[in-house]
Amino acid sequence: MSAERLPQFVIAGAPKAGTTALHAALATHPGLYLSPVKEPKFYLTDGRPPPARTQRGPGDAHSAQEWVWRRDRYLDLFRRAPADAVRGESTPFYLYDRAAQRRLVADVPDVKVIAVVRDPVDRAVSNWVHLRADGLEPEADFGRAVALEDERVAAGWAPFWHYTRMGRYGEQLRNLLTLVPGSSCCCCASARSSPSRPARWTG
Fold first, then answer.
1. Greatest C-alpha distance within the chain
2. 7, 114, 121, 184 — which has fewest CB within 10 A?
3. Neighbours of 50 (CB within 10 A)
4. CA nearest 168: which of 65, 87, 62, 96?
5. H or E element that contains 9
6. Torsions phi, psi of 200, nearest 5?
7. Are 184 and 172 in contact (CB under 8 A)?
8. What is the DSSP letter of 88?
């Protein structure tokens, strides 16, 4: 397949850091084309359905049904983009998933990556509140849910349950930058973060 209809940039993270708002705002720009599916998660897969071993948390199997894992369906997301528009998509989990980063860079070597982060504690709490509101998080105590993280990861719960791991932005950004020689990064906190504690990392 031609790379002409692949994204030229991605919003790669982090979950619960304002990527939905950024995706919606950029979609209004006349020079940009954002995928109509906000989180296709294509590069989280290797061209096959998400493996069952990563869908063992509450609601994970249902969520995995929404992933766009077939290449033809992924390319369809950009087929209506005007010829002169810059194409993009948003999948916050790309920042967290090392294998996804390798697939993305292999497919689009000159891809531009936007990383939106948030105070890691605020992000984790928001993540937990989201899952509680959806009736999926069984633990009514946030501290207890965090204490169970290692156990849940080992059991194969999906990344959205990795409350503390997804907040290790420095490690994640360094991993991403090693895949793109000569690149640099300046990452700032989203508006949801505490203004007195900006999340910043430069490389």
1. 51
2. 184
3. 19
4. 96
5. strand 9-13
6. -140, 140
7. no
8. E
